[in-house]
Amino acid sequence: MSGNLYERLAAGFPADRTRPCFLLSDGSQVSYGELEASVARVAGRLVAEGVRPGDRVALQAEKSVAGVVIYLATLKAGAVYLPLNGAYTAAEVDYFLRDAEPAVYITDDLGYVAAAAEATPLAAPVARTPADLASIIYTSGTTGRSKGAMLSHGNLAANAEALHEAWGFTPDDVLLHALPIFHVHGLFVALHCAFLSGCPMVWLPKFSDAEVLTGLSRATVMMGVPTFYTRLLANPGFTRDTADGVRLFISGSAPLLPSTFDEFEARTGQRILERYGMSEAVIITSNPLEGERIAGSVGYPLPGVELRIGGGEETGVIEIRGPSVAGGYWRNPEKTAEEFTPDGFFRTGDVGRRDPDGRVWISGRAKDLIISGGYNVYPKEVELVLDELPGVTESAVVGVPHPDFGEGVVAVVIGQGEEAAVIAAARGRLAAYKAPKRVVFVDELPRNAMGKVQKNLLRERYAGLFSGS
Ligand code: AMP
Hints:
This protein is of the alpha/beta class. Helix content is about 30%, strand content about 25%. The structure holds adenosine monophosphate.
């Protein structure tokens, strides 16, 4: 076997290729054999069009089976896959295309796959070494230009194998897949676990609680972002019975609120398994399959991952080294040099701490740290206090310019209440400099497609709160 990731994934496909890979909402299905044949034809078309090993193939389209075929065909042809979020504007796409210079840019995925019916199938995967590039994932950077994380065949294979093992996947599993496939979560984490075990996926174009409720009756594992779980819990149709056949609910891509974890356990009797990852390393830590899953903790580093806290304090920026960590940023040696330590650890930009037994807790992004009157305020610490208050469903704490303090702490809160009462309650539980100076009530928080609260937008929105501008 060469180091080509497709070869590794296909080795997990079921011996009986008539077994289903995709179970579609309309009742039809796509078998592993059909997927494999389609991948061979599309890989053949890519090669016939002149795509060479190492060339980039970009796809921007709605989620579909055709998109998965193009992803796998790109790997098989030895090329580098570049997924682009369908929500990107023309100007954003223009930047990615100029930066990555793909040999092929596909927007009509169904058309591309259909037209490959005439192509000569590519029989064997193009040989690749583990160090060869498999994919470029542009980070959803909120400051400056987005950077392309360079993930190799070896990075992705190592992570896929670690997760397959850690989460106990077997051919008897059925994975509910409602995530987008332009992001590492739906593209690598979910698909690779299914492929390595040769199990089927209940394939949903996007999250809809009605469809997920139906899908869960066939599924044994669900992967989601925290908002999937809050939306399920908001639906009275989601009961213990609905969740009964599911052995594992996994959450990641954004912090899972302890209240969601608790409510989920009360409703279903099951504990959500939270894990932590990022585009630059896929999955880094996970709560255990067997053993205690704790609300608010992201668990232990996966086997092979070295994790340490930089800066010499108990709480600091999480640094990691291991087989899945990207080699650097595409055509950006300066950023690569900045984000790696001299001894080869990647600075994640997430602030966290470790228990003596190695368990990891994340307290937010380093760039979200607030410095008010010279004191460091970790937004997560304040959010946890606010989230406990009656009437508060969820909160997001940010720092905005303040004439006296440099930055002032602002709490944006989903819920009902009085600003003065929330501030007073927070002051009763936190040092005065950490308590919010202003509280704004909203109906919802701005989130990106992966459910992450966009704090940069909150900082912009409330930038003038203390300056009166
Ligand atoms: P992305 O590269 O878009 O996948 O975003 C990665 C970032 O998402 C990480 O650096 C974390 O800030 C955040 N993240 C992912 N999973 C978790 C989690 N379980 N808890 C807290 N933050 C998370």
